[in-house]
Specification:
Elements lengths: L18 E11 L12 E7 L2 E5 L10 E10 L6 E7 L7 E8 L10 E6 L12 E10 L1 H13 L21 H17 L3 H6 L6 E11 L12 E7 L2 E4 L10 E10 L6 E8 L7 E9 L8 E7 L6 E10 L4 E4 L8 H10 L13 E11 L5 E5 L4 E5 L2 E7 L2 E4 L10 E10 L5 E8 L7 E9 L7 E8 L6 E14 L1 H8 L16 H29 L4 H17 L4 H18 L9 H19 L6 H6 L2 H25 L4 H20 L2 H18 L8 H8 L3 H7 L20
Subcellular location: Cytoplasmic vesicle, Secretory vesicle, Synaptic vesicle membrane; Endoplasmic reticulum membrane; Recycling endosome
Keywords: Calcium, Cytoplasmic vesicle, Endoplasmic reticulum, Endosome, Membrane, Metal-binding, Repeat, Synapse, Transmembrane, Transmembrane helix
GO molecular function, one term: calcium ion binding
C-alpha cells in the first residue's frame, strides 16, 4: 500500500529500459512489538526479483525508528515491484518478522522525488496493524546503462575479442556524432570490464576486508545454574554472518581461545553483536549478557585487545580484533581471465613461489573457477502451453560457488534447463584441504530457492585447466540427481605454506543447522565405530592365535620376531615401523596391487539415510519410535556425535596409511622421517625436556595463543569414509534417470 498513484503513462509498454532508483529510508511508525519488553529492534530489507539488494542498520529498542539511510538500485524491469520486509533483530539465530509491503515502481513519476508511506502487513494476519515505513524515492532513466545492456545482449554469443566494427553497435538512431563516440566508448568498457546489470547488483557480495576475532576468555560471568556456575558459550553476528563458540562447562571464567573470520562488506565498517549464553540441556538456554564491537572505531592492519563489559549481565569478554584488507575475491566474465593474462599469471606464480614460503602464511594459494554451463537440469517449474494444454518443465537456475565461508553467486538464467553462465570466480586459498562446493538452485520469487544439484570437489583432486562435466548430486552428496555442470578449475598454491597450515586449526564455518536426531544416522555411526573396534579385536585375536600355536609356522616366526625386536628395541623404531607401513602401501598402489576397496557399506548406509529423510518429509505425521527418542534428544544427539567422532578418528588414521590423499600421506612420511632421525640421534630425556619447557612456557611467551594439537589438526584434514563417498566423482551415465529411484529426487 502506497500513497502514490496506481500507474504512470511515462513508462513505455514494450522496452522499459534501464532505470536508477534512489531510495532514502526515512523512518518507521508504530511498528509491532516483538520482544518481551514491548519493543523491537527493527531493520529493513529491500528485495528485487527475489534477491536482497539492501539491508539497513538495526535500531535497538524502538518502535518509531529513524534510519535516514540512502541507497540506489539499478532497475531492469520497473514493472517488477520492490519488496520491503521489516524484521526484529534477535540475538539468537532467528529474527522475528514484523511486516512487509510492496512498492509499485510504475506508480512513480520519473525524475521526481516522491515521499511514500507503506503500510506493513503480514499475509497470515492481514487484519493486524503492524505499523508503516516512510521512504523517499526517485526513479530516473539510465540511458548509458541501457546501452550497455543492449550491447551486452548483442555481444553475448560473440567472442571476447575487442573489435572496432561499428556494425555491432545497437541499431538506435544516432542524434549526434558525440553520441556515437559515447556508445563506442561504452562498448569498449563493456568488452574490457564485462559490465552487466546482474554484476552491478552483486558487487555487494565482494567484501572489502576480513575481520578476525579471537575469543580469549570470559571473566566473572553471571551464575545461571543452581550450583552457582554456568556452561557458557558465545554467539557472534555481523549482518547475515553468524558464529557460535564451543561450550565450556561449569565455570564463570571460561577459556575459549577460538578464532573466527568475518567478511567486511561496508567501507565504514559495521557492528558485531556478541551475546553470551548458558547451555541448559533439555530446555531453553539462559541469556547471560551481550556487548557490541563498533568496527568503524578500530584502525586497520592492527590487532586490538578489547575487554568488553557485558550489558544486561555481569562480567566481561576478552577479545582480539584485527581488520585486514580484502583478499582477491572477484567475479568476472570469461573475457577477463587472470591466468590467461601473462603478466597477471606471472604475478600469481611469483606470489606462491617457494622463495616466498614464509610471507603471509595465511595466503596459501589461488583458486580460479570457471562456471561455464549446465545441461539437462531438473525442471522445477511447469508452464502450461495454451495451444495444446501441455505442461512444459522449466527452471530459473543460478549457481552458488562456495569455498569455506567465501560464497559467490552467478546471475539467473530464466526458463532454461541448459543455462550458460560463463562466469569466472577467483578465491584466495587459506587451506589447501578445503572443498569447493558448487550448488545449482532454481530461483523462486515468492519463496526460498529450490535445490537442483550439487558437487563437492576437494582442491587437491583438481586437475588444472581441464574442462570437466561433473554429475550433479543430491543434497547429501550420496547419489546422482538430474543434470551435469561444466567447470574449469585452476589451483596454484605454495606447498610449504600448505603443509604448515595443515598443522593449524581448521577454519570454522558459519553456524549451520543444529544436529538432528536420526535413528538411521545413529545406526550408521554405531556401525562405523564397530568396524573400527573390530579391527583392534581382530588384531588381538590374531596375536592370541600366535600364542596358542594355531599355526606353528606363523607362531614360530612371530616368536623369533618378538625376540629380535625386544632385544634390539629402540624408540626410533616406532615411527620407523609406521614409515615402513606407509611405504609398503605406496608400493602396492604403484605396482597395481591396490588393496583399497570402494566403501559400498558406507555408501549404502548413506543412501538408506536419504530414503529415511524422504519418508520423514512426507510422513511427518506418523509417530512412534521417534517420538520416544525426542524425549531424550539431547542425550541421543550427543551419543550420535560421539560415535561419529570416534569412527571418523579411526577412519582418518586408516585413510592416511591408505594414501587416500597423497599430499597428506607424503607429509606424514616427511614427519615420520624427521621423528625417526631425531629419536635415533637425540636421547629421549632431552626430547621430553624440550617438550615440557615448551608446554610450560607457551602461555608466558604467547598469552593469547590459540591452543591446538598438531596431530589432531593433521587428522582433521584427512577425509573420513563418509567424506570419501561424498567427494567421489560420479561418472556420466546417459541411461540414468533420476525418476527411476525415489532417493535421487532432491524434492
Amino acid at each position: 500500500t502506497s500513497s502514490v498513484g496506481a500507474s504512470n503513462a511515462d513508462f513505455p509498454s514494450e522496452d522499459p529500459g534501464m532505470y536508477q532508483l534512489d531510495i532514502t529510508l526515512r523512518r518507521g511508525q508504530n511498528l509491532a512489538a516483538r520482544d518481551r519488553g514491548g519493543t523491537s529492534d527493527p531493520y529493513v530489507k529491500f528485495k528485487l526479483g527475489g534477491k536482497e539488494v539492501f539491508r539497513s542498520k538495526t535500531i535497538h529498542k524502538n518502535l518509531n525508528p529513524v534510519w535516514e539511510e540512502k541507497t540506489w538500485i539499478l532497475i531492469d524491469n520497473p514493472r517488477e515491484p520492490l519488496y520491503i520486509k521489516v524484521f526484529d533483530y534477535d540475538f539468537g539465530l532467528q529474527d522475528d518478522f514484523i511486516g512487509s509491503a510492496f512498492l509499485d515502481l510504475t506508480s512513480l513519476e520519473l525524475n521526481r522525488q516522491t515521499d511514500v508511506t507503506l503500510s506493513l502487513k503480514d499475509p497470515h494476519y492481514p487484519d493486524h496493524d503492524l505499523g508503516s515505513i516512510l521512504l523517499s524515492v526517485l526513479l530516473a532513466p539510465k540511458e548509458e546503462q541501457r546501452e550497455v545492456t543492449m550491447l551486452m545482449r548483442k555481444s553475448w554469443k560473440r567472442s571476447s575479442k575487442v573489435t572496432t566494427n561499428f556494425d555491432v553497435l545497437p541499431n538506435v538512431p544516432c542524434r549526434t556524432e558525440n553520441l556515437w563516440h559515447r556508445r563506442f566508448n561504452i562498448f569498449l568498457i563493456f568488452q574490457t570490464q564485462s559490465l552487466r546489470l546482474s554484476d552491478l547488483h552483486r558487487k555487494s557480495q565482494l567484501w572489502r576486508g576480513i575481520v578476525s576475532i579471537t575469543l580469549i576468555e570470559g571473566r566473572e560471568l553471571k551464575a545461571m545454574d543452581a550450583n552457582g556456575l554456568s556452561d557458557p558459550y558465545v554467539k557472534f553476528r555481523l549482518g547475515h554472518q553468524k558464529y557460535k563458540s564451543k561450550i565450556v562447562p561449569k565455570t564463570l571464567n571460561p577459556q575459549w581461545r577460538e578464532q573466527f573470520d568475518f567478511h567486511l562488506y561496508e567501507e565504514r565498517g559495521g557492528i558485531i553483536d556478541i551475546t553470551v549464553w548458558d547451555k541448559d540441556a533439555g530446555k531453553k538456554d539462559d541469556f547471560i549478557g551481550r556487548c557490541q564491537v563498533d568496527l568503524s572505531t578500530l584502525s586497520k592492519e592492527q590487532t586490538h585487545k578489547l575487554e568488553m563489559p557485558l550489558e544486561e549481565g555481569e562480567g566481561c569478554l576478552v577479545l582480539l580484533v584485527t581488520l585486514t584488507a580484502s583478499a582477491a575475491v572477484t567475479i568476472s566474465d570469461l573475457s577477463v581471465n587472470s591466468l590467461e593474462d601473462p603478466k597477471e599469471r606471472e604475478e600469481i606464480l611469483k606470489r606462491y613461489s617457494p622463495m616466498r614460503m614464509f610471507h603471509n602464511m595465511k595466503d596459501v594459494g589461488f583458486l580460479q573457477v570457471k562456471v561455464i554451463r549446465a545441461e539437462a537440469l531438473m525442471a522445477a517449474d511447469f508452464i502450461k502451453c495454451v495451444s495444446n494444454s501441455v505442461f512444459i518443465g522449466k527452471s530459473d537456475p543460478f549457481c552458488v560457488v562456495e569455498l569455506n565461508n567465501d560464497r559467490l553467486l552467478t546471475h539467473t538464467v530464466y526458463k532454461n534447463l541448459n543455462p550458460e553462465w560463463n562466469k569466472i570466480f577467483t578465491f584466495n586459498i587459506k587451506d589447501i584441504h578445503s572443498v569447493l562446493e558448487v550448488t545449482v538452485y532454481d530461483e523462486d520469487r515468492d519463496r526460498s530457492a529450490d535445490f537442483l544439484g550439487k558437487v563437492a570437489i576437494p582442491l587437491l583432486s583438481i586437475q588444472n585447466g581441464e574442462q570437466k562435466a561433473y554429475v550433479l548430486k543430491n543434497k547429501q552428496l550420496t547419489g546422482p540427481t538430474k543434470g551435469v555442470i561444466y567447470l574449469e578449475i585452476d589451483v596454484i598454491f605454495n606447498a610449504v605454506k600448505a603443509s604448515i597450515r595443515t598443522l593449524m586449526p581448521k577454519e570454522q564455518k558459519y553456524i549451520e543447522e543444529e544436529n538432528r536426531l536420526s535413528k538411521q544416522l545413529l545406526l550408521r555411526n554405531f556401525i562405523r565405530m564397530k568396524r573400527c573396534v573390530m579391527v583392534l579385536i581382530n588384531a588381538a585375536y590374531y596375536i592370541n592365535s600366535c600364542f596358542d600355536w594355531d599355526s606353528p609356522p606363523r607362531s614360530l616366526a612371530a616368536f623369533l620376531l618378538f625376540l629380535f625386536v625386544v632385544w634390539n628395541f629402540e624408540l626410533y623404531m616406532i615411527p620407523l615401523a609406521l614409515l615402513l607401513l606407509l611405504a609398503w602401501n605406496y608400493f602396492l598402489i604403484i605396482s597395481g596391487k591396490d588393496n583399497r576397496q570402494h566403501d559400498t557399506v558406507v555408501e549404502d548406509m548413506l543412501e538408506d539415510e536419504e530414503e529415511e529423510d524422504d519418508r520423514d518429509d512426507k510422513d511427518s505425521e506418523k509417530k512412534g519410535f521417534m517420538n520416544k527418542l525426542y524425549a531424550i534428544q539431547e542425550v541421543c544427539v550427543s551419543v550420535q556425535n560421539v560415535l561419529d567422532e570416534v569412527a571418523s578418528f579411526g577412519e582418518r588414521i586408516k585413510n592416511t596409511f591408505n594414501w587416500t590423499v597423497p599430499f597428506l600421506s607424503w607429509l606424514a612420511i616427511v614427519a615420520l622421517c624427521m621423528f625417526t632421525i631425531i629419536l635415533y640421534f637425540i636421547p629421549l630425556r632431552y626430547i621430553v625436556l624440550v617438550w615440557g619447557i615448551n608446554k610450560f612456557t607457551k602461555k608466558l611467551r604467547s598469552p593469547y595463543a590459540i591452543d591446538n594439537n598438531e596431530l589432531l589438526d593433521f587428522l582433521s584434514r584427512v577425509p573420513s569414509d563418509v567424506q570419501v563417498v561424498q567427494y567421489h566423482e560420479l561418472k556420466q551415465d546417459p541411461s540414468h534417470s533420476p525418476s527411476k529411484r525415489k532417493k535421487n529426487n532432491p524434492g
